[in-house]
Amino acid sequence: MILGIAGVELLIFTIAAVFFAIGNYFIAKRLGKSGPLWAVLTIIPGVNIVFLYYMIYQIVYAVLDRLPGARQAA
Questions:
Q1: What's this model's pTM, rounded to 2 decimal places?
Q2: Which domain holds residue 57?
């Protein structure tokens, strides 16, 4: 094998990370955040796990801010 098992796993991770980065870029733009920064943070191994939690909270808060009546309930 040319790549070996570790090389194949890295290739699969990189391809998946690029697709997630593209999606996160557009999510960031909709939330008024830096799209390129979100895309880069999605691709960096280790950082992307911590960034995932940050991203989830940002999306949840954006949805709650846009729901009518959500501020009175909180």
A1: 0.76
A2: 4-73
Q: How many domains does the chain have?
A: 1
Contact of 27 with 38, CB cutoff 8 Å: yes
End-to-end CA distance of the chain: 57
* 13 token code pair: 């991770």
Nearest in space to 30 (alpha carbons), one of 62, 61, 52, 68: 62
Q: pLDDT of 23-72, one tens digit each?
A: 999 999 999 999 999 999 999 888 988 999 999 999 999 998 888 876 66
AA identity, residue 57: Y
